[in-house]
Every structure is written in structure tokens, then in C-alpha cells.
Amino acid sequence: MTDQDLPFAAPPAELLEAALYVPDIDSAERFYGGILGLDPIVRVGNRHVFYRVGAGILLIFNPEETCKPPNNPELPVPSHGAHGQGHFCFAVEGLALDDWRARLEAAGVEIEADFHWPNGARSIYFRDPAGNSIEMAEPRLWER
């Protein structure tokens, strides 16, 4: 079967959620909820903590917990998980990147890179406590 043989479906309209995997939910909660100030939605023990980011949701999972088969028949989410460092990028307007850089450095978070892309958009990169690469970039980085 080729792509042309598949029934038509419109491409997804937007990203609803994205996930990062961390072994320590407490440190992730201090980082994402405390340092980054994200709006928490729910935490379930040592399994996960979820945050609202604009219209989307950032899911922070402990892979040692999410790899276990589901035990709630009313929530039959398949087991999943990833190990190793991932990447996530927040949209942050230009001048606010300076404020974020100052806040992160004051919190002891090392800025690994701060640069301008060929189209002029700026990004800063840093790591969460689990080593995930976190980026804050001007939204014009991906202008259409």
C-alpha cells in the first residue's frame, strides 16, 4: 500500500501535547513549576506531572512508571516511555529572552547557547534536571 492508497484525512491542525521523560518528578516539578513558573494541571504520585503551556500541554513522565501496563480499565492508555535526553522548545518573544536568561542564571541554570538563527530569530538553550535540552526561541524562528 502506498500513501496514495490511503483514505484522505486533513493534517492535524496544531500540537496538543508533547512529552518529556524524567526519572525524578519532584525535581521536574521544582524546575518546571518553580523556576519556569508553568501552570500545573495535575500530578499523579511519582508517575507524572502535567503543565499548561499556552494552548498546549507539556507532559512530564517518569519512564519507569509509564512503561508499566495500565491498571485502570477506564483509562486504557498504552504503556510508553523513553530514556535519554529529549528536547522541548518554548515560544518566547524577543526582549523577554533577556529576562529569562537572567532568571535562569539567577536560579543556577547554565545557558548552553544563546544565538541568532540565519532568519534573525534568537534562541537560548539550557537543560532541565534530567538533562533534557530545553530551548526558548522567538516564534518567528518557524515563520511560514
From TrEMBL:
Superkingdom: Bacteria
Pfam families (alphabetical): Glyoxalase
GO molecular function: dioxygenase activity
VOC domain ranges (all copies): 14-139
Gene3D superfamilies in the record: 2,3-Dihydroxybiphenyl 1,2-Dioxygenase, domain 1
Transcription is among the record's keywords: no
InterPro entries in alphabetical order: Glyas_Bleomycin-R_OHBP_Dase, Glyas_Fos-R_dOase_dom, GlyoxalaseI/FosfomycinResist, VOC_core
Keywords annotated in UniProt: Dioxygenase, Oxidoreductase
Name the UniProt record assigns to this protein: Putative ring-cleavage extradiol dioxygenase
